[in-house]
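Session log. Operator J.P. requested a structure for one protein chain; no other inputs attached. Running the standard single-chain path with token output.
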Amino acid sequence: MPNVVKRHVLVIAYYFPPMGLSGVQRIAKLVKYLPENGWRITVLTPDTASYFAFDDGLLEELTANPDISIVRTSSLDPTRFGKSNKQKTVSFPEERSRRFLSSLSQWTLLPDNKIGWKRFAMKAARQIFKQDPFDLVYATAPPYTCLMIGAAIARREQLPLIVDYRDDWVDNPRHTYPTYWHRKLTARMEHKVLEECVHVFSINETIMRAIQLRNPQATCSYSVVPQGYDPADFDHIQDQNPQAGDPSVMTFLYAGMFYDAQQPDTFLTAVRVLHERRPELKRRIKLKFVGLFPESKKILIQQLSLENNTELMGYLDHSDATKQLAKADVAWMIIGHQTGEEMISTGKLFEYMGSQKPILALVPNGEAKRALEGYDAATLVDPDDVEAISVAIEELYDRWQSHSLPMASAEHVKQFDRKVQASIIASEFASKIS
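Structure written below.
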């Protein structure tokens, strides 16, 4: 059988392994599975300097494939300077400091504080194109600097551009604009990107509609590919001993970070309320946290006298995090009330569904709640209702004790399979190549 010549796509991604945390998952898994769908990939990304967490295991999934090349460049932004092959882990700022630094950067750095990468990326892309021409440009955001880089490269090389919104840009609920003019300039930046774009992917319908409403003149096509999970990450679950650990203790697990309105306060308070109502459960419920945990919330745990119930496991690479998820009895998540809450659908939710664990979802009306429709193993509670959360935890405990926790719908979960999603995206790529 003759060898099939694969098309070549340039992928522009600021957050990419060995950087860790949730921002790298979507693009890393897409890159992993695109070669199975007839594509060679060159990833353009900054060097592996300082970041909040690293996951070398995710990188190892990619480097062994000859159809995947990774080009790293220098960058200038507030967290990394110059070029370095050394990984330096830095502390994630407390929420008050994070908000202050974000607000400060939005006065002068548009579209975001990664704009200092643009000139390095543009230069590297020119060299890549000279040595190994690519057929298409694909950029994922945030940061939105990636979309501007993608548009500039596509325009220069006269190639189709496809972009991916993991969060909204102009109306992102985590953005604040110092002035009306800052927002207007940002909207103009988005408009110029979409002038170059042939297709837009977004993670949900709400974000997609917001982009379309802001840019009615755009001629690009649109489609939704939600967040997802890699089935290969959960192969070990079939062999996982469901009674691993202490069978007399029920485990609630949270995997990920806390920031903005996503905070553990109401969940922790609800556990304390449950302890007051049923003191015997103090020894029967375990709270595990996988990921970076704020120092201020450690104080809250002490104030609520939950030290003996809580295990802070710190950041774990993705493989170990999914193993902990497999051992848990219930996975829980929160999307707090805030402006734009309806468009938030966090990546952890889809990893949770991939594990087919019961999920306690403290979420408002919106995309996260809609994603759980049909899952069959979700308990939905308003994120601010401490009493209702306490009752939900109690009911889940009673069902656990009677071996009757809800079962997830495997059919519902299949739609979030990263392999399936990669084939959809690859088909869209192929349709845009003339």
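Operator note: The domain at 7-228+417-431 is CATH 3.40.50.2000 (Rossmann fold).
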